[in-house]
Design a protein that fits this description.
It is built from 11 helices and 8 strands. It has 258 residues and is of the alpha/beta class. The strands form 2 sheets. It has a 5-stranded parallel β-sheet, sandwiched between helices. The chain is globular, with a radius of gyration of 19 Å.
Length: 258
């Protein structure tokens, strides 16, 4: 569990428990390290077989909000576990992280209601986007009792604005910042990443812009979600894995005033 400080008055993010179901211990460890470096997530268990997964779920299901599930396990098909989760643990979301590329497998997983489907080797940026979307949807659904169609479409990002590329409506959509992200701080984060010759950790960005690590990481993860910045897993001075960020897209539409 991480113990990052927060800015004065900054609300703590909810923490979501993750169960990793993966028989390859090397891949499982990579996923664990990535999740533990992602703000708001905590790995509560790791299972290398269907039997271990069922045992974890029987004892600790209340602590788990998200399962990373491989389709290939030594004693059971991952899709069988998916249907078990959908039947017995409706509060848990499932993300398939697997080498299975067959359309039949993908189709069944989608019919089973997976939150996302990531094909190995899953890129750090893509994994980060999934986690950002998970946080956003969970927070939005927990914040209210009802939603309009427009609000639901915005949360689920199911409908894109109907406008020509670069047109006023599209431009306005790109420039709309979520609550808690302001342009002045965003510019400082972008500038810190842009001036670096190598990918930076959140702490390095925080020092460059004079903010807390939690603030820097929140802005960096937003930039990852809109594909302006990419995240990759590296190793710090003490050998611990950490997320590092590099600029890969144009941040101008997000940093300019509308």
């Amino acid at each position: 569990m991480r113990h990052d400080g927060h800015d004065a008055g900054e609300r703590s993010l909810p923490e979501y428990g993750i169960l990793i179901i993966e028989d390859d211990f090397r891949i499982a460890e990579i996923h664990r390290a990535f999740m533990e470096q992602s703000e708001g997530f905590r790995v509560v268990g790791m299972a290398r077989s269907g039997a271990e997964a069922r045992e974890w779920l029987a004892r600790h299901a209340a602590q788990i909000q998200l399962v990373l599930l491989d389709a290939y396990l030594p004693d059971v098909e991952g899709l069988e576990l998916l249907w078990l989760l959908r039947r017995d643990h409706l509060h848990i979301d499932v993300v398939m992280v697997t080498a299975a590329r067959e359309v039949e497998t993908i189709s069944e997983a989608l019919r089973g209601g997976v939150f996302d489907y990531l094909i190995k080797p899953a890129e750090a940026a893509r994994m980060g986007q999934m986690l950002a979307r998970f946080r956003r949807e969970r927070a939005a659904l927990a914040a209210r009792g009802e939603m309009s169609q427009e609000e639901l479409d915005r949360v689920l990002a199911r409908v894109q604005p109907e406008a020509a590329p670069g047109g006023p409506a599209a431009e306005g959509s790109r420039r709309q910042l979520p609550k808690g992200i302001d342009r002045l701080t965003l510019r400082a984060v972008v500038a810190a990443v842009e001036e670096a010759r190598a990918p930076l950790a959140a702490m390095q960005v925080a020092k460059a812009m004079g903010a807390s690590r939690s603030t820097a990481r929140r802005y960096l993860e937003f930039l990852v979600s809109v594909k302006v910045v990419s995240a990759e897993l590296g190793y710090g001075d003490v050998g611990r894995p950490e997320r590092r960020y590099r600029l890969v897209g144009d941040a101008t539409p997000w940093c300019e005033e509308g």
